[in-house]
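User: Fold this; tokens only.

Assistant: Input:
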Amino acid sequence: MGEHGALDSLSREELLELVDIYAKNWLALDGVWFQSVEQAEGMDAAMFHDARAWERYTAIEARRIKQFLRLSEHPGLEGLEKALALRFYGRLNQDDCAYVDGKLIYTMQKCRVQTARERKGVPFHPCKRVGVVEYEGFARAIDSRIACECLSCYPEVTDTSCACKWAFSLKDDAQRV
């Protein structure tokens, strides 16, 4: 077989199904390690380590997607929109982007993590603190001029129509470039 062995013989549909499986496996690993720390050390420790892990991971993910898309050094909000669409959990969650007043509004309509927690009858994951680390880091790795603002994210929910909502904008000095 070729360079990737078993993958070479798969159809496009099978490869997409496998990407979905990989995404679910990745999310399961993220949840399993978090729950392990939470059970052993408590929520504060789990959130601390989660933030540290996401700070590193999100930058790696963004750089690899940026390279894959062959984006320029400063691709702006349009480049960020393209990159957000290719994030691993984008295969698992329902999200959308819209431009409002010069900002890119990213809305996570349905979040697999929160939906699973709701189904299991456990409290929602307090993801805003880590979400800020994740989305700011991802945006900065795509274009260092992009600022991120949390509009709604548990536990500080201001929009009950979605799981979370983020606004991205070019910093003032970048808009004059």
